[in-house]
Amino acid sequence: MPQVAEIQPLIISSVSRCALGMVQSWTLGSNASSVTQSANNISIMVPFDLTSHMRISHVWWVNGGTCSGTVDVGLYSLDMTLLCSLGSTTAAGTTAVQCTALGTPYLLTPGYYYMAISVSSSTQTFYKLPALQIGVAGWKMLGCGQVASNHPLATGVTLATFVESGTARVPYFGFASEDIS
After folding, report:
1. Closest to 84 in 3D by CA, of 100, 109, 107
2. How many Å apart are CA 98 and CA 126, to the nearest integer?
3. I need a surface site. Which of 12, 122, 137, 171 has the fewest CB within 10 A?
4. Does residue 6 belong to any structural domain of this protein?
5. Residue 83: inside a domain, yes or no?
6. How buried is 171 (Cβ within 10 angstroms: 0-12 exposed, 13-18 middle, 19+ buried)?
């Protein structure tokens, strides 16, 4: 009789190999930490490349030490069309993964996309990737961007240069095929 292994949930995140996973080697052993978003209503955009189909049904992020306001996580095509998003959702659960179901699951096909996260409050904290030794220029080089006045996430936005803050850090967030909390 063949062995049957448990199927693990599929996860795409800002630190997946298909996104910014390679930057971990650039952080010189630094740890992630709880950091505020530099301003409210700004969405952080992280590019990723998907090589196979994936049905996403949940979005997630890692709250830091302070939960304040609402968060939205979504998916954009390269032309900045909003494909799906959670919608404005109250941040809850300090120093914990917050995972929430999308209203309707979405089937991703192979291709290039942007994942986006935005927050309504400048005091909300997220666990974020360590600051790159090469600073903001490094995030620009990796294709990250931001959009001002984009909470909740909207369609047809214009991607601007990534300047998130002096430390320029990207939150841990992403999509999953099931609840991972």
Report:
1. 107
2. 11
3. 137
4. no
5. yes
6. buried
d(CA 125, CA 91): 10
* Residue 181 counted as domain residue: no
Identify the residue whose tokens are 């080697």: 25
Q: Which two tokens stand for residue 158?
A: 């214009």
Condensed to tens digits (0 to 9), the pLDDT of residues 40-50 reads: 888 989 999 99
Q: Mark residue 15 as left, alpha or beta (left: phi above 0; alpha: psi -120 to 50; beta: remaining).
A: alpha
Residue-wise pLDDT tens digits, 75-129: 999 999 999 999 999 999 999 999 999 999 999 999 999 999 999 998 898 888 7
**Total domains in the fold of the chain:** 1
In a domain, 2, yes or no: no
**pLDDT of 4:** 57
CB of 63 closer than 8 Å to CB of 22: no
- Measured CA to CA in angstroms, residue 159 lies from 3, 37, 60, 108 at distances of 47, 18, 22, 21
DSSP string, 117-170: EEES-TT-EEEEPPPPTTTHHHHHHTT-EEESS-SS--SS---EE----SS---
* Structural domain range at position 48: 11-176
Look at residues 61, 161, 60, 69 and name the one whose alpha carbon lies nearest to residue 122.
Answer: 69
